[in-house]
Specification:
about 75% strand
Length: about 190
Amino acid sequence: MKKLVLTILLTSGLMASGDGVYVGVDLGNAKSDMTMAIHNPNIEATETESAGTQIVKVGYYFSSHHRLAGFFQNINVDDGSGSAAGVVYDYLIGDYALKPFVGLITGFGEVKDDYFGIDMTGAFAGGELGLNYDFNGHISVEAGYRYLKTNMNDTVPVYVIDLGQIRDLDVSIDTIRNWFIGVNYKF
């Protein structure tokens, strides 16, 4: 029995100090900078939309400083839906319980607006930075900020009242800024 307890303690200590699989959830708020344009006549407008976000991720710590994760994100869109999936690599700085981190993120997203019939899809890429606090080698909490560039867009027909004609409306999401807090569990 003593050998079993000693083996469990040594194994959990090794995992806490280095590599291992982890799962996590993040909650946050995303602000998307959108451009809407009608050509001939040239009408252009920009708008910032805000939405709550929820992320589920599964990843792997390669060491106490390097981790890689795949994620799925739900985006709360008024009169529609939104989602994204991708990968994120983080470098955690330092050897203390509280570690700043910087990372690279890329993936693919879709935002639908049922009211206007808009269905924007496209890729995104960017970076993130934040703070991670490790409670005990298994449970950690983190908070951070992501900045993403995207090519998500769609074109839909709209009726222009002044012309009495239908014209194409080009809608695109240019950047996404996302604040988040989360919790991770490393096995």
